[in-house]
Amino acid sequence: MPALERLLYASTATGRTDSLLNVATILAESQRNNARDGLTGALAAHEGRFLQVIEGPPAVLDRLLRRLEGDPRHKTIVVIDRVPIAERRFGAWTMANARITPSLTAHLDALITDPSVDPARTVAALLEASREG
Hints:
single chain; five-stranded mixed sheet; globular
């Protein structure tokens, strides 16, 4: 079984995150690319920021990060956490839309103002929001 890692990052959107069209376009492209590359994860768009968790082989995550750095839809990518994992938690989705619930809103607001928020708690919140979405 190949090695797996989980990457959690935040970035600043250059377009509107409250636009269903913008988010749907990103989700569709991510789902297509992630299916091709063997990646799984979830995306949350909130208050002009993106929060994304992605799981997959380390070399594929490295390529994805390089591609994301050149993506004009966001800037200021901050890797919050990157850890080896034994199994995927987001294996059901090539890229889920993490539904922004009131509890996730509070968590994302805290993360935006304090990047030291527990990454495991953030991943759990995104997982729960993906199941609801």
